[in-house]
Amino acid sequence: MDVALLGLEQILTWQTMLAVVLGTALGVAVGVLPGLGSVVGITMVLPFTLTMGQMPAVAVLLGIYCGSVYGGSITAIIINTPGTPQAAATALDGYPMAARGEADLALGWATTASLIGGLFSVLVLMLAAPQLAAFSLNFTSVEYFALGVFALICIAQVSQGSMLRGLLSGAMGMFVATVGVDPVIGDMRFTFDSFALSAGISLIPAIVGLFALSEMFVRIAERYTPTVKVDFKVGFKMPPRSAWRGRLVLLLKSCLIGSFIGALPGTGAATSAFISYSEAKRSSPNRARIGKGEPDGIIAAESANNAVTGSALVPTLALGIPGDPVTAVMLGTLIVQGITPGPRLFIEHLDVVYAIFFILIAANVAMFAIGAVGAQAFTRVLRVPESLLMTAVVVIALLGAYGVRGNSLDLVIAFAAGIVGFVMRRTGFPIAPMVIGMVLSPMIENALRQSLMLTRGSFWAFFERPITLALFVVTAAILLWPLVRWLLRAAKTHNDAQDRRT
């Protein structure tokens, strides 16, 4: 208790609290702007944190982290353009709600779920950080491959209309992610002798094109056909308490999924959001409406991706292993500030660990306040004429795509992805599975090849590991369940027909 009070004392200074508020506000702004993201936001302020004290510097970074993960949901709901890859799943139900005139309520669901998910992950860290760190340490490349295969079922779950089209879209995303240098032998793959492609195709420019630019192309095409004007509500509306009935189990499950995925080194909020959304589509009582403007989809995606913000720090602080790309950037800054992540941090500087926990709590509370108060300002962009709004979105998105690496090729990638996204929208191919494939492809490929090296090329050796076997069994059960359900319905129909004849 004394150590916890000492940690609380370290953050209760005006410098640290101001850093939390400003960092969170900046994070929300970065998340709102399409094409930017947590890594970009943190990278922008890294030079400035070197002149700050230890706790204010950590507060700014954690504030940007929490705020940016949430901020992407605002544009995902309002204009169907996720500000960050983590919010891609949120757009699947958030934008349809906005199109019905319920943008304010959709923002309320997203903000509340984000707050609960973030606070839940901090609670998990404070109660079980050593156990979670020990559990994630048991994961080898074999377990990561099994986890990636399990995550791939999201492609089938989020696909609308045709599972085959969803699988083809996901396969396309996995292929795009393989462009560049082979991570094992160093050979060039699918670069067509182009040096510019040797660095691969960055996820952020691809996301910008698939969502932002394709949306612009679709709206341009619709100028020549009759369209229905959508009157969006402006503001922020908290979901009523009665609306949470029947959804608390989903909320808890999504928080658990986000905390679990976030604690595994190398994964991130995008993966957890898609897995949680897939689980909601499979098990939610309202699953038939998910993808058509159902709050369950927003709750699943936002609570899961925000639950990653706290749990991702488990391997980062306890093991010195980044929990996701964002904490990988933060890791170097923590070392510069005199915080050396590792097991001894929990022994020698436990007060610093508690201070980080309290900063995360403050950042999540600040995130909720900024989202609630600033939602009306963010939704005012809907009053701007559509031509000006979409132009501004494209300009900001392209600036964000270029700013990630400062490579003009990313502008070409974004534009090409926009054309691909436009064609996919017009032909009924879902875009979300392609994003899932791009996110999961590097993890699955690296884990598979490393695992085959460890097992000397024997894939059957994977099934000798209990965790891997369990993941494979769950994956098979979920994939086969639609077939089993169809067979049961067919048998029931056959029996009913026989009963009517008799």
UniProtKB/TrEMBL annotation:
Q: Which positions are tagged coiled coil?
A: none
Q: Where is the signal peptide?
A: none
Q: Which InterPro entries match?
A: DUF112_TM
Where do the DUF112 domain residues begin and end? 17-436
Query: Which residue ranges does UniProt annotate as crossing the membrane?
Result: 20-46, 58-79, 106-129, 141-159, 195-213, 248-275, 352-375, 387-405, 411-441, 462-484
Record keywords, A-Z: Membrane, Transmembrane, Transmembrane helix
Name this protein carries in UniProt: DUF112 domain-containing protein
Q: Which organism is it from?
A: Pelagibius litoralis
Source lineage: Bacteria, Pseudomonadati, Pseudomonadota, Alphaproteobacteria, Rhodospirillales
